[in-house]
Structures are given as structure tokens and as C-alpha cells.
TrEMBL record, chains A, B:
Domain HTH lacI-type: 5-60
Annotated SUPFAM superfamilies: lambda repressor-like DNA-binding domains (SSF47413), Periplasmic binding protein-like I (SSF53822)
Keyword Cell cycle tagged: no
Record keywords: DNA-binding, Transcription, Transcription regulation
Name of protein: LacI family transcriptional regulator
Record-linked Pfam families: LacI (PF00356), Peripla_BP_3 (PF13377)
Length: 349, 349
DNA sequence: TAGGTCGGTCGAAACGTTGCGACATCCACC
DNA sequence: GGTGGATGTCGCAACGTTTCGACCGACCTA
């Protein structure tokens, strides 16, 4: 039902050859103004709305679509301001090049890549958020020969766009040490696709299989902070922060500072502290990671590490565009920025 | 660079005709197990990863892609839990049919439909959130002959999926009247693409050009509540709720109840009231619309009208799938449900 | 043994474009 | 007046698939 009328019909109606009619639309190649007008006129008369995109793609060998691989549960995915801003950056840059953005939800837990990923028409793919960098997805793209850009994860032989996770967390650690904190509690992002959420053995937590989670933990240690108690979250959600917050504040001796691997988690920590009647930062300091806006936090300004999220998305899109065109693309690691707020202060004596 | 090897190569390598090789993949039509295995074997050897989706689409006359038209600024769009859940519903249902989801950001303000909307390959389109139902987008789809499903907006001659906006707001109005409130302040969703945000003339506000905003306002009146003061928001954001909340609470006499056209706005109202040291609901009642989770609200449970957001998305997707297949689809208006919480109470005497 | 059926395979014709090379036509210039 | 270069226009061959109808054995039934 799309368009029954084709370029052939238009050409016939205009009294020109198909090639000429094509020129009138593609704009590439010499064509007289008169002929062009004649063709466009005929097209309008027939209700022809431009060349069939599928046929054009086939002929050109490019679909004009970039696949964006996201977590299956969009609800949880998009509840995360980081994911949203990344996506926004991607959309902005793709839009500037008039490229389509095909959303491909994948389920990390299931062992197989979705059909869409294996069969949809696309010139390149962007795997968002590291989480989607699960083996099946990556393998499926390899098999298809579709070039891929990984965000927040380094994959051998692929382009990746990341931020300085370790350095950022190191800065937080040093900030807290400078304030005299020695008893620090931590809530991390999920430790791995199949790792259980909840208490984490602080002495030897093992290495997280999520690249940025591992890097942030490492940064903490590099900065000289060895957490006295830690919790792994199920996701970057406020509720998880609240839950973890209570768990961490139950520890004895009570930590004087809490660090979260995301701002949403940090917000949860803050709320948990408030629920217990603890003053922030007098009784307990709280720091996060990401640098997103949390307008509902009230007067507090969260101490956090700002990462250039939107820029990350833009760079990923730019890389994907290059790869789609057959050009090389470079990986990048973007800088982060410790932004002290009102939620961290000197350790209580 | 996608796949240089084609079905022709595979057929040759397997020693069968191209048609037979095609059958081995499409599965449609009779083919002996032996031949099929032979073909798949040859395909694996050559690194052939299945039929080229573009060529298949051209031949089949269907692209397997549904366009989803959203507001240009994804950041603001996806900050809205309603939009996200709708999208989640759409994604779920499309995923079940292995259909692709092409995100098409549109700028309502600009007069033209984006190139993507006019030229991308898709079998049908879903216009989300009413906001995207601006004339240029709709016209562009009409011209292309692409069937469209409108969410939260009724467009003549198109399928639309909506909720009972008026009835929901009427229920809120009756609820508040039952509690004895007579001085009610309101913050609405944007009044129109070009309408100025800020104070609204309550006696004759004019008709909102946004369908659901108009319907909710009408519902309020039907329920017997004539606002004593009103503010139009710029969008469904907490910050706007806070701003509007202060403006509304500045009115004299101060309203005893505040109604918001969305839960995010209601959350803002709540925060504004708290900032002023007002007790909710003893000093002022607050009600919202949507029924989304706001885990960071603290102990309060917002009185609101729950709408089946995810279901709305699913129905829109189902309708789009039907239209894409050339089948008819029905419009629908989904029911809503007043859910009294702890934020509304008797009017102070 | 002849006729009918059916499972399996194949050729060829689309699907709707684009772009290369060929071919006119015309003007300018020596 | 002939040569050369623009300038438009056109035919034709892809692009990689699917699908329709034809074909050909083999098996079944009368």
C-alpha cells in the first residue's frame, strides 16, 4: 500500500527515460531545469513521493540505518538518565547525517542475539552501555560483518568510546580521604550479568565482568580507599540506592562516607540517610558518579564525577557513520571531572 | 563491507540452483533435509550470514520496520516516564513480531517534516505522544502513503490509541470536591506548540491545541472544578512543577488543592509545598495524572489517575503491525483509574 | 502397466532503483 | 568548415532476493 506508482510511471508520464527521471530526484548529474520541472510535475500529478528507499538502498549498497543496541527492558534502560543522554547524543549526530536509528533491544540474560540484530538492515551498529556487549550480540555482528562501535566497553578489534572511569573514581577516593574519611561504604553498579546483587565481600570482591564497574572499583582502590562495606546494586535505580543505603548504614562501625557508582544510586543513599534522620554531610558524606541533573533532590548538590555523556553518544555515532562509509574510526576515552557539591564534608570526629 | 558473498555464491558452492538455496533459508516451500544441510554447510563455509535484508525487503515489498515518531529532544522526551513506558510497550509488541523500530525525532516547532520521515524505509508509523502529530509530519506520511497510528491524539482518517483523559480528570475533580476543596490551583501540560508557558487565564483559557491537554482541562470543568488559578507548564518536568507550584501557592487566597496534568508536575508541586513548609495534605492537597512510579518521593503516595501506559504502546504497535500488513486496525480509548493516595485530604477549614 | 500425485528442484521474471558508457546536439573557436 | 568540449538524454546492466510455474522422477493406486 506504500507507493504503487514507481519511477517508471513517472518517466512515462513525463515523456523521458527512467534514467532521466532518476536524475531529477537524485540531483546527481546534469539535467536541464526544464526537464527536471517536467518530471517533478508528473511525479506530483501521479502522487509519486520520491524513490523507493528500499530499492535505492539495494542499488546503493547502503541502508542508511545505524542499529543501536540497547537493553531489552527499555523501561529500566530509559529510567537511567545516563542511557538517555547517550542516546540523545547518538540521535543528534545521526540526525545531522540523515541516518536512521534502529533500536534493537537485546536481552543480556538470554544466550542468543535477537533476530533483529542478526537480520535487520543496517550499515553499522552501536552497542550502548557496555551491558549489551554480551558475547552473543558481538558475535552476531561479527558474523554479519557489520562494523560495531562499543560504548563504555573495550572489545578487542572494535572501536570503543569510553570515559575515564578509574580516574574519576580515584578522584572521588582522594577527595574523601582528603576530608578525613577512612570508613567508606560503597554501592556498585551490577557486578555482572549473572552476579548476585547484595553484599559484596570487600576484601576480595573478585573482578567485575562489567568493564566500567570493574574500572570504577579499581579506581577507588587506586585512590587509597578500601571500602569497609559494599553492596552491589541490581541496576542504576533510586530504589536500589535506598535499599543499599540502609544496608550500608547498618554496618558497624557505621561508615562516615558513602560512594555510589551512579548518581541515581547516590540519590538513593541520600534518601536512605534522610529516612534515618542522618544529616548530610555532617553525619555522613555521599558521593556519586555521572553528573546528571536530579531536580527533585531538594537543596542538596550532589558531589559527583561529571562525565561527558552526550558527547560520548555523539562520538559513538560519528564513529559508526565513519565505519558505515567504510572509513576507519578511532576509539576514544573521554575525560571526567570531579565536581564537589554539598553532600560531602569533613569526616565526623 | 557488509556481506560480499551472496546467495548466488552459496548456491554455486552447494551445487544447487539459486531458488533452492533460497528455500534453504526462507524455509517456505518443500526442500529435502539433505539439500538444506548441504546449502547451510556451504553458507557456513563461505561465511554467508543469511539473505541480504534489503534485497529481501525489495522483493517482498515490506521493510519489516515500523517508524516511531518522537519529539526531537530525546533528552526531554525520555525524561518523561510516560513516554518511556509507552515506548517500552511499543518495543515489546514490535519485538514479538520481529519488527524493527526506527526512531524518528521530529521538531514540532520547525515547519517541515524531517527527511527521515519522508524518505526512510518503513511499513507504518506510530506518532507518539500527540505532540508529534503536528501537521507537517502527518502530511508527510499521507503523501508517502504510509499508514499511521496516533497515540494520545485523534486525527481524522487515522487510527488512534488514547486514554480517557477527560473522565480521569473529572474523577480527580469529583474527588477533590468530595473533600471539600473549592479553591483549586492547576498546572497543565503545554497548552500548545507555540503557546506561551506561565499563567493561564482561568476564566477563558481558550482551547488547548494539544488534544489531551484540552481533554483534561475539559474533564476538570465537567467534574465541577473551576480553577481559581492556573499555570501552563513548558513540559512534564519536575522543575516546571516546582516553578508552577510556587506561582500557584503565591495566589491569594491560597488554593487548598493543587492539580497537575502529570505526575512529574505533581511531584514538583509537592516539592514546592515542602519548600514552603506546607504540610501535605493538611495544608494543601496535591493530585497528579499518569500513575507512574516516583521512588524518590519519600513516604508520600501521590493521589493520581493511573492510565495503562504500557498497554497503550502495545496497542499502538499492534495497530501499526496490522496496518503494515494491509489489514484494518481499530482505534481505541483505554480506561483510566483514580488512585487516591496520601497527598489529598479534607480541605482545611 | 498406465495414470495420477506429490515432493523436490530449477529457470526466469520480477522488485524499483542508480550509474556507467554511449550518443546526440549545440556552441565556440581556430 | 571542421574539431573539441560541454551539456543533456538514454539504454542497459546491475543490486540480491523471492516466487511462480514448469519440470522430473518416484511412489501409489486402480
Amino acid at each position: 500500500m506504500t507507493s504503487r506508482v514507481t519511477l517508471t510511471d513517472v518517466a512515462r508520464a513525463a515523456g523521458v527515460s527512467i534514467s532521466t527521471a532518476s536524475l531529477a530526484f537524485s540531483g546527481a548529474g546534469p539535467i536541464s531545469a526544464a526537464t527536471k520541472a517536467k518530471v517533478l510535475r508528473a511525479a506530483a500529478d501521479l502522487g509519486y513521493s520520491g524513490p523507493n528507499p528500499v530499492a535505492r538502498s539495494l542499488r546503493r549498497g547502503r541502508s542508511g540505518v545505524i542499529g543501536v543496541v540497547v537493553r531489552k527492558d527499555l523501561r529500566q534502560n530509559f529510567r537511567d538518565p545516563v542511557a538517555i543522554q547517550t542516546l540523545d547524543g547518538v540521535a543528534t549526530t545521526l540526525g545531522e547525517s540523515d541516518l536512521g536509528m534502529l533500536l534493537i533491544p537485546t536481552d543480556d540474560a538470554s544466550g542468543a542475539a535477537p533476530d533483529l540484530l542478526r537480520h535487520a538492515a543496517m550499515d553499522a551498529a552501536i552497542l550502548l552501555n557496555g551491558a549489551a556487549a554480551s558475547a552473543p550480540s558481538v558475535r552476531a555482528l561479527r558474523e554479519r560483518g557489520t562494523p560495531a562501535v562499543h560504548v563504555d566497553a573495550a572489545v578487542r578489534g572494535s572501536v570503543s568510546i569510553r570515559v575515564q572511569d578509574a580516574a574519576g573514581m580515584r578522584a572521588v577516593a582522594e577527595h574523601l580521604r582528603g576530608l578525613g574519611h577512612t570508613a567508606v561504604g560503597v554501592v556498585t553498579l551490577p557486578w555482572g550479568p549473572r552476579a548476585a546483587p547484595g553484599p559484596l565481600e570487600v576484601s576480595r570482591p573478585g573482578r567485575s565482568s562489567v568493564p566500567y564497574t570493574a574500572a570504577r572499583w579499581a579506581g577507588l582502590l587506586e585512590g587509597g580507599v578500601v571500602p569497609v562495606v559494599a553492596q552491589a546494586a541490581r541496576g542504576s535505580w533510586v530504589e536500589e540506592g535506598i535499599r543499599a543505603g540502609h544496608a550500608l548504614l547498618d554496618a558497624t562501625p557505621r561508615p562516615t562516607a558513602l560512594v555510589a557508582f551512579s548518581d541515581l544510586l547516590a540519590a538513593g543513599l541520600l534518601l536512605a540517610a534522610r529516612e534515618r534522620g542522618l544529616r548530610v554531610p555532617q553525619d555522613v558524606s555521599v558521593a556519586g558518579f555521572d553528573g546528571v541533573d536530579l531536580p527533585w533532590l531538594g537543596g542538596d548538590v550532589l558531589t559527583t564525577v561529571a562525565q561527558p555523556i552526550r558527547e560520548k553518544g555523539r562520538m559513538a555515532a560519528a564513529a559508526a557513520i565513519a565505519l558505515a562509509a567504510g572509513e576507519p574510526a578511532r576509539s576514544a576515552v573521554l575525560g571526567v571531572d570531579l565536581r564537589p557539591g554539598t553532600t560531602t564534608g569533613p569526616a565526623p570526629s
